[in-house]
Amino acid sequence: MGWLDRWIWEWGGRWLGGVSDQDQPPQPTTTKRRFGRILRPRSDQLFAHGGGDLACAVSAGAVVLLRRENSDDYVRMHVPDTNCPRPPLPDEPLDSGAADWAEPNRWSFWGKLDYSGSGWVFGPEHTSALNMVRPSYTCYLGDFLTRVSVRIYANPSLLNQYRCDHFGLFLIQDGVPTVGIGFGSWLHPDPDAVGHWVHPERYVNGSWILSYANLPGPYLDNLAHLFIRRSGTTVSVGWSWEPDPSAPLYGTEVEVASGISGPVLLAVAKDYNFPNAPPGFPSARLVAGMLQWKTIYGAPSEIWVETPVVDMGAAQQVVVRGLPNGTQLVWRAGNELPLPNYWDNPTGAYRYWQAKLSTSSPNLLLERIEFVSDAEPLTLWRRFRSYWQLFETGAGRITKGPFRTVFGSGGQQRTQDGWIQQSDEERNVGDW
């Protein structure tokens, strides 16, 4: 939108019977200038600033998370996608915008964080490595298909069948896993392949069920994939051993629940219980090395965060900035409220400003929005016959002066925006 659209909105709409100012909802304003990071408490606030009218608005499908410091937050898609960096998660670099980095509050971990191996390792015992990991937020508003990629390890002897414990992907309800899909219960020998394959199973209301008796599962040490799908309110599970699959292997998908709607809480975990077996039957503990969690579909097409209306105190030219690179930034401005109902990225001098930062990538974080004026006056003071003024700039605070009034030339007049001379002959010496 250009100047013509702005004129039609601000003036033509009134003459042509368009929406009037009185028809617009009130727009609360704030004097904050930076959102998502607090460097100067007087002028900065977090995206999740206490709620209410002066908090930033966040789209459906997005979540605001706090880093370890209480002076920094960011907005991300509420999906579990990750390449499983080693916990504890790195704190740096801040404001990089890269998912999996500087997101220590994204995950809830149980178990031992100091372990050997890459990715997320779920050990043979409770005290060996991780026990369970889940996002600290719910995921997916509607239909979805999500996948975890994992390698299963064990040390059975050849030609023997073993009972074993389990690793799985679960849907959590009321704080406990209710349905899921996993590998475990039995390790089967395969003399032709000189190895063992692990049994895939579905999990329903606390019980593992052997669902695929006629289909061998993945072999130990090979990459395999677990899926949970929701269609409408029906949840199904499946698995695959194919490389980078986009759906469960044909014949493996089974419905496990219905009537499940709205955002869901997901988790990956070890279940250390063995199935029943005759006395003396050999047992083996599994080790799971998880390498990736991926959304096949169900992520929002876009997320955004929108600032409240910023009152600059007077009409000013402002540079609007958004972090990180690769996100989409738009803004609007005006000298009266309400602001136009479109985003046209104006470059003139206006008193009221508002911005929106967005992304369509699940791998980008919305880090920060800033409104920077070249020189915002803060304080004016007089010393003898000279005047000094303190300004806030994008580079920090600076002092300008001295501005000396010519002796005997007459007075100055104080205005809302500062001081003015009362005639052309009475300019301050040193004006800039």
In short:
This protein has 432 residues and is mainly beta. The protein is built from 1 helix and 30 strands.
Description:
The protein has 432 residues and is mainly beta. The chain has three domains: 125 residues; 219 residues, Jelly Rolls (Sandwich); 50 residues, no CATH class. It contains one helix and 30 strands. Strands 1, 2, 3, 4, 21, 22, 23, 24 and 25 form a nine-stranded mixed beta sheet that branches. Strands 7, 9, 11, 12, 13, 14, 18 and 19 form an eight-stranded mixed beta sheet that branches. A six-stranded antiparallel beta sheet has the order 8-20-10-15-16-17, with no helix packed on it. β26 and β27 form a beta hairpin. The longest helix is centred in the N-terminal third of the chain and has 13 residues. The protein is elongated and about 100 Å long. The two termini are 34 Å apart. The N terminus and C terminus are likely disordered.
